[in-house]
Specification:
heterotrimer; A alpha/beta (441); B mainly alpha (404); C mainly alpha (393); B: mainly alpha; 17 helices; 3 strands; C: mainly alpha; ABC transporter involved in vitamin B12 uptake, BtuC; 2 domains; elongated
Chain lengths: 441, 404, 393
């Protein structure tokens, strides 16, 4: 038996060596100074979400004088959220190109602020929370001072954990789930939250459309959808309405005749579809086919895609949803943005995520700039905590999706929410709601 | 178990101490030398556990389970739920992780027993489908259960990342599977694989053996899941998709159905490839596009060369010609690599976006699976183990044995 | 919402006929795909995991054909004649069937034929590999896209047919009208109040009182409505889905004729009964296998074309997984290897899913397939119409 034991130990050694080798293979050009080294033998962290916005405790990531500053973007370039992910990273690229062209440093392709070159590094999350986390870890290894992303709440939750444990700021692009901002003082977003859009749609349904009995269709597989349904129904009931039915489906379902028949028996005045556009289109089509032809269809910003019309056809026309901005708005930011986008990509942005990706990138660069100034004044190297502070002190930053103020708002900016109507030509503005009127209670 | 020499126990004790020491040493070394890879190494060792434990079911006992991720999921959710309990929440991190690993393993083992007992009446592809269905049921039910966080997932506190612990569990898993085969109990596993009827005739309790294999495999998957939950501090149904089971299956099939070390090595390699590809990117994702395309191209080229070599081996008999053919096949790897790089560049996904690493990874895994089945269905190492004996001189006249 | 209530409190039996019809319509497509699984298994004893992906490719064929005729993303803007639309639909159906058939052939020839003498597990792993390859290599080259579209304006299959089963009694209708009048009155009062308070986001106490009154009237109205609904029962048949159903049934009847009344069909049955003996008796089994794969894949192609076009589901290369798995369960349920079994299994699967939704467990809809699968395999491994022997030891 003895020799077999020895033989065996080699097996271990081989396996261990292979493990160690894989580590060497994947070593990165990351500048591993004080900021990225774990503090001790095995890092341990306690605490989940609390309302007081816990602050990250690790030593911040520092960039020395004159070195490149990298900003990381996690985008769903693959998977079911691809139309959104593509727009968000295209928007970010457009913002970087514009900023680079604006700075008077001679080179229109490089963004240089106070001797620091600013670069955008993009990683793909494949529309998947776990891959999103890996992508964020990879960005941390590449040495980024802050993270931008994602378009969906589920993925943003995992990225936020990575950012928190590395003391990096995170600017979420389109993650509207309300409880995300409680994750830590490093979390900011450029979009509104479901605490706004759910109630806005409830108020719109109740007061403007005069609906009293709503049915809801919720995508059980999407945190976004369950959260939105919850906030919608709470406000709608508070206003005096009644939710007569809620049916559940899962992402990638195609046949909805069963749940629709159940809903139909409850005679709703209107139907709230809180899922993403991929399922909303066929759902709308089948609702109309099942004989519910008059009930208005309503939804959240998950509807926003130029694919909605193709998959929903005539059925979706006349539906209302909540959006971040409208391409027909008469504001200079919107016009400049749309012109620049058309020039660069030869088309209109397919979804709102283009504007939000653009806004979040500009906001992040602006915060980095302010952090650099602050560092210069204090004669210190710039670090990620300074960027967090700069973001926290943002006031009236002019964004395409409206002015962004983050000061004293726990990461959730006061944004306007627009209700838009789906028409054959695109989205028609219906009504605007100011955030403070809804949120202040 | 006759003939245990006097040096048996001291050697055994020494090797146990040695392994534990090695785990701690590696932990320290990694922490000092490559802290950024600390988490990735934990994940790699967890995949080794998953692959080796699946190999016990698929390779060694000859069953066919493709729902292994479900057991990891059960372990992870058990750990995530119980660590909220104040009894456990106040423990020191290392102790908590140990307790959670144990409980996760026990829960998964229970489920393994529940699934295993009735479904092992079935064989082959039917068993495969039952395990697949079981995995999906677990995932769908979790997705729909609000108290487990539903589709949003469950934050797990505290976050505990301990490489030495996962390495230790990996060692335990490998050692247990390997030592099992040396006992009479273990031989029954092989008997079930080789010929159930003959085994039955020789008095092997076939059902019992299958259930034991299932339970042990499930337990280690549960342990890996529990460690994963505390390493990542966040779990959701999407952490354990159907594809995860397929990845583990690929690891087992690639490494060799029945070879413990083979599947361990395959797990590490298959885990490392996509992580390596991630690092090829530069700021704009440009370099990645070129390198990943070439990398994948060469990989496919190598597989074609292996196929060609196999063909040459059986069809070309003249010695000089044979060598020339071999050289030609392997030299063709480089141009083939560039050819496939060009083809991959035609892909709109890769060309326009420079992304799509996960898709590329699965596509290549699929090619590996098909190629292996066509060329060497028993996997690269077959039933062989990697060990010292590879370097020992073979007795004259001994042939390479054990190939299926 | 519903979870707080006891299970039966919320059931509405007037919906049951509609749900059963929905189940049939859904099941027909499952049956169409299940035939491919069952035919291949019958002849080769191989679970063709890639069948779901053949189905997925069928959707893409339909998409590309519709693009060829100019029906791109602007579905609402397109003009076409009614005849043109019908012609295009026919073309899409035939192209999907033919091309899917050839894809099935190709898969068999390249991946499965070399594995024929290998252990079945090796063939199964190959099948999983082919399935993953088509999904992921497909994702590298095929677009994520909206479904194939035909002109909405002249789509002959829009709208629905209605069948009234029973009408509500005059008494309950009168009660409903009275309740409605009260409700309207209360609602008007409340609307007045709302108008006054419009500038604020939340209601004042006075508003809350009026709201509560209105809610009470609302509840009474609901009660009356429930009674009326309980007495009224109708079935709505969306035309598109009826067309799908009829086409599926026609295809299945065609298959039945082919298998039972032609020489090739007899060869198929012989090979399915005993592959080796059939080949010894002079049957060209390779030809039989080829034909089996062709027909099975063509049926999947037809299902894919109809499902994507009429239901409007956006397409990805992963959209074949779920229908594939469910159809496979349907095949096992009916008795894998048995052609009438697959049809029966598909219809039962559709029914089972719809009934679970009717019971209010929509979240668990996808789990039903697997629960059925496991139960069938444990208690009647041969399925409903199959031979009982799975694999004798």
């Amino acid at each position: 038996m003895t020799h077999t034991t020895q033989k065996w130990s080699l097996g271990f050694v081989a396996a261990f060596a292979a493990v160690a080798l894989s580590a060497c293979n994947s070593s990165t050009p990351a500048p591993t100074d004080g900021g990225t080294t774990p503090s001790g033998g095995g890092t341990t962290e306690g605490g989940t979400t609390t309302s007081a916005r816990p602050a990250p405790s690790k030593a911040p990531f520092t960039v020395k004088e004159g070195e490149v500053i990298r900003i990381g973007l996690v985008a769903s370039r693959q998977g079911e959220l691809r139309p959104w992910g593509e727009d968000s990273s295209n928007g970010a690229a457009l913002a970087m190109a514009e900023l680079a062209a604006d700075t008077a440093d001679g080179d229109p392709n490089k963004l240089i602020i106070e001797g620091h070159e600013i670069q955008l590094v993009v990683q793909d999350s494949n529309s998947d929370p776990v891959q999103g986390k890996n992508a964020a870890e990879q960005l941390v290894n590449q040495g980024v001072i802050g993270l931008i992303g994602e378009v969906a709440s589920g993925i943003t939750a995992t990225i936020s954990d990575v950012a928190f444990s590395n003391s990096l700021p995170l600017v979420a692009v389109g993650a509207t789930r309300t409880d995300l901002s409680a994750k830590g003082s490093h979390f900011f977003r450029v979009c509104y939250t479901d605490a706004l859009q759910g109630p806005v749609m409830a108020k719109f349904a109740y007061e403007d459309l005069g609906l009293r009995k709503m049915a809801m269709f919720t995508d059980k597989a999407q945190p976004y959808s369950t959260g939105l349904s919850e906030s919608f129904s709470a406000k709608f009931k508070e206003l005096g309405g009644e939710i007569v039915d809620e049916q559940f489906y899962q992402t990638k379902d195609t046949q909805f005749a069963g749940p629709i028949a159940n809903t139909k028996a409850k005679n709703p005045d209107g139907i709230f579809l809180s899922g993403y556009f991929n399922e909303v289109g066929p759902l709308a089509r089948q609702i109309r086919e099942a004989g519910m032809t008059t009930q208005p269809l309503l939804g959240g910003d998950g509807w926003d895609s130029d694919q909605l019309l193709t998959s929903g056809g005539d059925a979706i026309v006349g539906g209302y949803f909540c959006n971040h901005y409208n391409s027909l708005e008469d504001r200079p930011e919107v016009k400049t943005f749309l012109d620049a986008w058309k020039k660069k990509y030869n088309a209109n942005p397919g979804t709102t995520m283009g504007a939000l990706g653009y806004d979040s990138t500009k906001l992040m660069v602006d915060a980095v700039k302010r952090a650099i100034m602050e560092a210069k004044a204090a004669n210190k190297p710039v670090d990620s905590m300074m960027v967090i502070n700069a973001l926290e002190n943002t006031e009236n930053f002019p964004g395409v999706s409206g002015a962004i103020t983050l000061k004293g708002r726990n990461g959730d900016p006061a944004k306007r929410a627009l209700v838009v109507e789906v028409t054959k030509e695109g989205q028609k503005f219906a009504k605007a709601f100011e955030a403070d009127a809804v949120m202040a209670k | 178990m006759t003939g245990i020499s006097n040096s048996f126990w001291p050697v055994r004790l020494a090797s146990v101490v040695g392994v534990v020491a090695l785990c701690f040493a590696l932990d320290r070394v990694v922490l000092a030398a490559a802290p950024a890879q600390y988490r990735l190494l934990i994940l790699a060792s967890l995949f080794v556990i998953l692959a080796v434990s699946l190999n016990l079911i698929n390779g060694i006992t000859g069953q066919f389970s493709i729902g292994h991720a479900a057991f990891a999921m059960i372990g992870a959710y058990t750990a995530g739920t119980l660590s909220k309990n104040p009894t456990f929440a106040n423990m020191p991190p290392a102790q908590l992780l140990a307790v959670m690993t144990l409980i996760g393993a026990l829960t998964a083992a229970t489920f393994g027993f529940i699934v295993g007992l009735p479904s092992l009446r079935l064989r082959g592809d039917y068993l495969a489908i039952v395990t697949l269905g079981f995995g999906e049921i677990i995932r769908i039910v979790t997705n729909a259960t609000e108290s487990l966080g539903g589709s949003y997932g469950m934050p797990v506190a505290p976050k505990v990342q301990l490489l030495w612990w996962s390495l230790l569990m990996m060692a335990v898993c490998i050692a247990l599977c390997r030592n099992l085969l040396k006992t009479t109990h273990g031989l029954t596993f092989l008997a079930v694989r080789e010929d159930e009827v003959a085994g039955l005739a020789m008095g092997v309790n076939v059902t019992m053996t299958k259930v034991v294999a299932f339970v042990i495999g499930a337990a280690f998957a549960g342990a890996a899941g529990a460690i994963l939950a505390h390493t990542e501090a966040f779990i959701s149904p999407r952490t354990f998709p159907m594809e995860m089971s397929f990845i583990i299956l690929t690891m087992v099939v690639l490494g060799g159905t029945g070879s413990i070390t083979g599947s361990a090595l395959a797990a590490v390699v298959l885990f490392a490839i996509p992580e390596y590809l991630r690092t090829l990117t530069d700021a704009q994702g440009k370099a990645y596009e070129m390198n990943a395309g070439l990398f994948m191209g060469v990989l496919i080229g190598i597989m074609i060369a292996v196929a060609a070599s196999k063909w040459i081996q059986t069809n070309v008999h003249e010695k000089g010609k044979k060598l020339g053919f071999y050289a030609g096949a392997w030299l063709a790897v480089i141009p083939l690599g560039f050819l496939f790089q060009t083809i991959l560049h035609l892909s709109p996904t890769l060309k326009q976006l420079s992304f799509g690493i996960d898709i590329l990874r699965y596509a290549v895994f699929a090619v590996v699976l098909i190629a292996l089945m066509l060329l060497r269905p028993q996997g690269i190492f077959g039933h062989h183990e990697i060990g010292w004996h590879w370097f020992r001189k073979r007795p004259a006249g001994a042939t390479e044995g054990g190939a299926a | 919402m519903m979870s707080g209530l006891p299970l039966w409190a919320d059931l509405s039996f007037s919906v049951l006929p509609q749900q059963l019809v929905n189940g049939l319509l859904l099941g027909a497509i499952y049956a169409l795909i299940a035939l491919g699984y069952t035919m291949v298994y019958g002849v080769l004893r191989l679970i063709n995991f890639a069948h779901g992906e053949v189905y997925m490719l069928g959707g893409y064929v339909a998409l590309f054909i519709s693009w060829q005729f100019g029906f791109t993303q602007d579905a609402l803007m397109q003009n076409s004649t009614r005849e043109g639309s019908l012609l295009l639909l026919g073309l899409m159906l035939i192209a999907s069937m033919l091309i899917c058939g050839f894809i099935g052939l190709l898969i068999e020839f390249l991946a499965y034929r070399p594995m024929r003498n290998q252990p079945r597990i090796a063939a199964l792993i190959t099948a999983i590999g082919v399935s993953l390859l088509l999904q992921y290599a497909g994702a590298l080259f095929l677009p994520n896209s909206p479904p194939p579209s035909i002109s909405e304006k002249v789509n002959p299959y829009r709208g629905e047919w209605r069948i009234t089963l029973s009408q509500p009694s005059g008494e309950s209708v009168a009660a409903l009208a009275a309740a409605k009048a009260t409700l309207d009155q209360r609602t008007r009062e409340f609307d007045e109040q709302i108008k006054q308070e419009r500038s604020k986001f939340d209601l004042s106490p006075a508003g809350v009182a009026i709201r509560d009154q209105k809610n009470q009237a609302d509840q009474e109205f609901n009660r009356a409505q429930t009674i009326v609904n309980g007495q009224k029962s109708e079935i709505v048949l969306p035309r598109g889905q009826v067309v799908m159903f009829i086409t599926s049934i026609l295809l299945m009847l065609g298959l039945n004729l082919l298998v039972n009344f032609t020489k090739m069909g007899r060869a198929m049955r012989a090979a399915s009964h005993d592959f080796d003996t059939a080949s010894l008796m002079g049957i060209n089994v390779n030809k039989v296998v080829t034909l089996t794969f062709f027909i099975g894949s063509a049926l999947a192609g037809a299902g894919a074309m109809m499902n994507t076009t009429f239901l409007g589901t956006p397409m990805t290369t992963f959209s074949g997984v779920q229908p594939g798995v469910k159809a496979f369960v349907a095949a096992v349920l009916g008795g894998i290897g048995s052609i009438p079994g697959a049809v029966l299994g598909g219809l039962l699967m559709g029914m089972a899913e719809t009934l679970v939704v009717w019971l209010g467990y929509g979240s668990y809809r996808d789990a039903v397939a697997f629960v059925i699968l496991i139960l069938v395999l444990l208690f009647r491994p041969g399925g409903i119409m199959g031979s009982a022997a799975v694999e004798k030891v």
